[in-house]
Inverse folding.
């Protein structure tokens, strides 16, 4: 029986009057505009009582709500794009993030909810996702028509813990930016907001992303992928219901074994991303053979690369927005034995990472790229082994027992995070058709054993 959640309060968290806000809306860059009709980011963090690294107890629910509400206001003042709206500017054909005084006047939507039958320990420990439970623990953004809110948050009392759900508009943040925001919110909730602000101030000016064509390029992207603005309907082909989802956590030792299997076949030795991507890619192919994939079929691996440090000039590490480009690795993986296949996959991924570093804008219009591949034969890698999910999200009662991306939409998607349990660990959450999950699991785990 799916968990039931009752919303007991729907409030608005106001941005403090002293916040430094831009005088004009921030026009979306072409890299932002690609995401205007894309499924939203919805992420849930589960805090089970006594499950932090130090066994810390989650405070009483009323205290959690008060702390999150107050610290969200403090953090929204530092990250005003997530308190504003995505707006259409018909006079110029632009879309923009309005986080001016007018744009943030409505504040951030903040839901308080409770569930008597959702158990925090089970949701935090079961490797198989309770998809229906996760879905009701995150808010839904109203983004089908502009102006659209850029973020909403939901805190839910669970049996034995608390869930924090966040929804954010993908045209405003990429994964790196969202984790930077969550890190800042957690620091503020712990009473360390000032130190966090001094260490890493964000930058919001989209003009820092220098692309050939500039503002007109962004307008052409909107005309191409969102021709009916202000209507911004989510691309339906990207939503795949009834997928099985499972989380795999690999220790540093397991990652070491996987990298060792590959090391003799790549130069330099593989990164954690390259190693996991290769293992997941081959596991996907093996799991879908022979029902979907046959010998001789080309199977592709799609992923996004952060190009903050690669653009000329670079917008800087503190750039807060969407700054990613597309990558597509190709190979024929069924003709090899497992060891050779993983090595070949790693070499192909590594070559594509190198290509993206040298030519960061070659595949910036990744939507066009995706439109040319067979979605039944593509693995979609998202996230990063460098996202410090568990270290970054200690709100004062220990790190979460689990965090998951709720919006996993693709049959063959892998979401990566730095794993719980020490430096070098990796979390890989997988969505695939239920008929193929057991085979995927068997192959995936065999490569780290």
């Amino acid at each position: 029986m799916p968990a039931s959640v009752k919303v007991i309060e729907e409030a608005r968290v106001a941005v403090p009057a002293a916040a430094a806000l831009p005088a004009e809306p921030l026009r979306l860059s072409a890299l932002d505009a690609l995401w205007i009709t894309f499924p939203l980011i919805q992420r849930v963090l589960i805090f089970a009582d006594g499950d932090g690294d130090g066994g810390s107890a989650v405070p009483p629910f009323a205290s959690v709500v008060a702390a999150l509400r107050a610290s969200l206001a403090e953090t929204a003042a530092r990250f005003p794009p997530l308190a504003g709206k995505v707006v259409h500017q018909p006079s110029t054909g632009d879309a923009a993030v309005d986080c001016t005084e007018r744009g943030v006047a409505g504040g951030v939507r903040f839901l308080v909810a409770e569930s008597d039958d959702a158990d925090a320990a089970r949701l935090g420990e079961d490797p198989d996702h309770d998809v229906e439970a996760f879905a009701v623990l995150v808010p839904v953004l109203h983004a089908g028509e502009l102006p659209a809110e850029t973020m909403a948050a939901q805190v839910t009392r669970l049996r034995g813990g608390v869930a924090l759900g966040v929804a954010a508009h993908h045209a405003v943040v990429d994964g790196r930016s969202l984790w930077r925001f969550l890190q800042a919110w957690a620091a503020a909730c712990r009473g360390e907001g000032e130190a966090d602000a001094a260490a890493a101030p964000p930058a919001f000016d989209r003009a820092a992303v220098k692309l050939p064509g500039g503002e007109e390029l962004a307008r052409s992207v909107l005309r191409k992928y969102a021709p009916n603005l202000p209507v911004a309907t989510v691309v339906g082909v990207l939503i795949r219901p009834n997928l099985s989802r499972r989380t795999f956590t690999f220790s540093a030792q397991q990652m070491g074994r996987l990298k060792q299997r590959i090391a003799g076949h790549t130069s330099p030795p593989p990164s954690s991303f390259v190693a996991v991507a290769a293992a997941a890619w081959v596991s996907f192919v093996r799991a879908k053979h022979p029902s979907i994939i046959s010998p001789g079929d080309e199977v592709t691996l799609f992923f996004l690369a952060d190009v903050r440090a690669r653009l000329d000039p670079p917008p800087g590490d503190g750039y807060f927005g969407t700054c990613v480009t597309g990558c597509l690795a190709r190979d024929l993986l069924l003709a090899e034995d497992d060891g050779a296949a993983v090595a070949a996959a790693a070499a192909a991924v590594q070559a594509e990472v190198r290509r993206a570093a040298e030519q960061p804008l070659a595949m910036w219009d990744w939507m066009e790229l995706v439109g040319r591949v067979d979605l039944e034969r593509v693995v979609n890698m998202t996230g990063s082994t460098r996202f410090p999910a568990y270290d970054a999200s200690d709100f004062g009662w220990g790190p979460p027992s689990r965090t998951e991306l709720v919006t996993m939409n693709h049959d063959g998607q892998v979401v990566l995070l730095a794993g719980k349990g020490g430096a070098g660990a990796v979390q890989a959450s997988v969505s695939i058709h239920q008929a193929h999950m057991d085979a995927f699991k068997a192959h995936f785990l065999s490569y780290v054993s």
